[in-house]
Specification:
InterPro entries: ANTAR (IPR005561), CheY-like_superfamily (IPR011006), GAF (IPR003018), GAF-like_dom_sf (IPR029016), GAF_ANTAR (IPR012074), WH-like_DNA-bd_sf (IPR036388). By secondary structure, the protein is α+β, with helices and mostly antiparallel strands. It is built from eight helices and five strands, in the order ααββααβαββααα. Strands 2-1-5-4-3 form a five-stranded antiparallel sheet, sandwiched between helices. The model has no long low-confidence stretch (mean pLDDT 81).
């Protein structure tokens, strides 16, 4: 993409914000971010998103080309590279020419062998902390300019907010699903055994503990089949909650 004027950039970022807001989940948001990065940031041929998981480990969650995943794998294998640097430390990392890169020689050799000559990485940051990195790739040396950094930095800020929002929305959706399923399961037990809400919930917890099954899965099984696990019928919780007992 060529030079972007101030007005054009403002329009592009506004359109980006609207399009990302319309995505339904984290998976689609990640794909939308990488696709938009190629169209928005000057010099970009390929884009990828490296995301930090629960154990602070990074992995590539979205990529516009399989070449991105190969280059990222070289970083995971060597434990070095611009994307990892952006994830954990630096806000912006720019590699003008991987054939002359001295900071991460092992990674640079492998990336250059794959045909990548220049890279630009941005930390995706929100108030809660780093989410990962937006990574841009080109087969041409010196592909990324100061303008690329400026546009990419603004783009990454929008992307971080969109990704954080998608994660919150998914967590909210899962919370509502869990609450609804457990409520339905409690209702079935309360009617079947003339049990109180507390007794029904205690029974679900005991079944979860005895079978080593997540509470949400116990509730889902009951609502789908109308049946508890067989060993749940021996539960002492049912002693005070049998059909006709209340």
């Amino acid at each position: 993409m060529g030079h972007i004027g101030g007005d054009d950039l403002a329009v592009a970022l506004s359109e980006l914000a609207r399009s990302l807001q319309s995505e339904q989940d984290e998976r689609h948001t990640l794909d939308a971010i990488t696709a938009a990065a190629v169209d928005t940031v000057p010099g970009t041929q390929y884009a990828g998103l490296m995301v930090v998981g629960h154990h602070r480990e990074a992995d590539t969650r979205a990529a516009t080309d399989d070449l991105v995943r190969q280059v990222d794998q070289a970083q995971y294998d060597t434990g070095e590279g611009p994307c990892l640097e952006a994830v954990h430390r630096a806000e912006i990392v720019r590699l003008p020419d991987l054939t002359r890169e001295g900071r991460w020689p092992a990674f640079a050799r492998r990336a250059a062998d794959l045909g990548i000559r220049s890279m630009l990485s941005f930390q995706l940051y929100v108030e809660a902390g780093s989410l990962g990195a937006l990574n841009l790739y080109s087969r041409a040396p010196e592909a990324f300019t100061d303008e690329s950094e400026h546009v990419g930095h603004l783009f990454a800020a929008h992307a971080a907010v969109a990704l954080s929002g998608a994660r919150r929305q998914e967590r909210c959706g899962h919370t509502i699903e869990t609450r609804d399923l457990i409520g339905q399961a409690k209702g079935i037990l309360m009617e079947r055994y003339s049990a109180t809400a507390d007794q029904a919930f205690r029974l679900l917890i005991e079944v979860s503990r005895r079978t080593g099954t997540r509470l949400i899965d116990v509730a889902r099984h009951l609502t789908d089949t109308g049946q508890l696990r067989p060993d749940a019928l021996t539960s002492p919780v049912l002693a005070d909650a049998q059909p006709g007992a209340h």
